[in-house]
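Hi support team,

I'm filing this because I wasn't sure whether my run with iron/sulfur cluster finished correctly. The job status page said complete, but I'd like someone to confirm that the output block is well-formed before I use it downstream. Pasting the exact inputs I used:
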Amino acid sequence: MKQKLAFADDHFHDECGVFGVFGHPEAANLTYLGLYALQHRGQESAGIVSSDGTELHLHRAMGDVEEIFQPPVLAKLPGSLAIGHTRYSTAGDKALLNAQPIMIDCNKGKVALGHNGNLTNAAEWRRKLEHRGSIFQTNSDTEVIVHLLARSQARNLSGALGDALNQVEGAYSLLVLTPDELYAVRDPRGFRPLVLGKLPAPANSGFAEAWLVASETCAFDLLNAQYVREIEPGEMVRISKSGLESIHFAPEKPHQQCIFEHVYFARPDSIIFGRSVSDSREALGRALAREHPVEADLVVPVPDSGVPAAVGYSLESGIPFRMGLIRNHYIGRTFIEPSQAIRNFGVKLKLNPVRGLIEGKRVILVDDSIVRGTTSRKIVRMVQEAGAKEVHVRISCPPTISPCYYGVDTPTREELIASASSPEEICKYLGANSLGYVSLQALRRAVQDTQGTFCTSCYTGSYPTDLVQLEVREGASGKSMIDSSDNLSDISPTEKPVAVERES
Ligand code: SF4
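And here is everything the job wrote out:
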């Protein structure tokens, strides 16, 4: 594995990416390419499970998709079905044992699972299941689904999966593979994206067409695949040789799609939750220009994620857009917790100002978020040291005041600078001439949230799931974790799917 350099990256961290193929003889190769396009969603580990129609074949390792899946490895993943996963841990240790997909051979047969999201009641289920004799192989929340699945009395896998998922709470966009079926499932609130696509199947492959499932549509673009639609919140799509079957496995709940996917996580060339991410980010930049105008000479993005919003700010304000900061793309994201000395070094490893553009100018610096404020402060100083006359910071989301419990790696509330400091205090800390955040109303408008179907908990501190029985404690890692009271319901009886439809 290549040696990675550590640097400070003061952002919420992406969660995970999933990709699946049904009905293509190059299933593992396509999954590799799909994961490659989704690499931004997780860089700690990756895995692929393929099916040759009888057996499941697994390869998982720590590192980047490109490093792990060399041609000899892919050659050992035969068959026309596959699922893949790229991981950034939000629950469980950063270790190979927690890499996904998870593969099991249980009373429901051979099954593999890949999960993007975070279960908010996993801790109490784990304790309860262990009390009843279950032996866990990992410490990730996803394994709870596996144990609940195996305990279900349902006769088929879709019923057992519905049983298991009706007992967990939180966020899951889930792919499940058996030797001859692929399931794509989204939690009833739809926190994380999951999209369906298709490709023509090669002649003589035995399949009419190849179905694809991905966290984001950018994975389809790489394969020249056609985007078909989103997997709906609360929907389980079962793909088999008989075609697609849509199962609504849970009672409807108000939708809570993660608004931060549009602000930062998703790639701007993706369409998620029915909306172009690039369009949302440009609209956010335009809103910022209207809400926080300032006289200046240049609009400069903090690359890469600040670029679309900076373009929007420039178009709306008429102030020229310039790439006044250059990002070194050969520095990977890191999961090493760096020492303070390396952190300081790290911002310069990642970004460098273009002095000739910045010197003597009044600069509007556009970024997508401020988490702890440490990196933003260094970037402001870097632009000042490059000769900027003024630095006005503009942020394309509201102040981030609360952690996320739905599949995003966030610092504790105490570490979030906006949880205890006003924008004026933060501006002073950054050393900027002014600071402006886009409003929550403008953010909702930018993602076209006319029905209130987006989660905004990290900006409001108000959570859409019942956290009454939960208490937040500090884990050994220092990250916020959810612990539970003992007020647990028993393992519930089988809940049947509430609606089933077929698609051609
Ligand atoms: Fe997304 Fe924030 Fe909600 Fe988490 S709390 S799902 S990051 S909007």
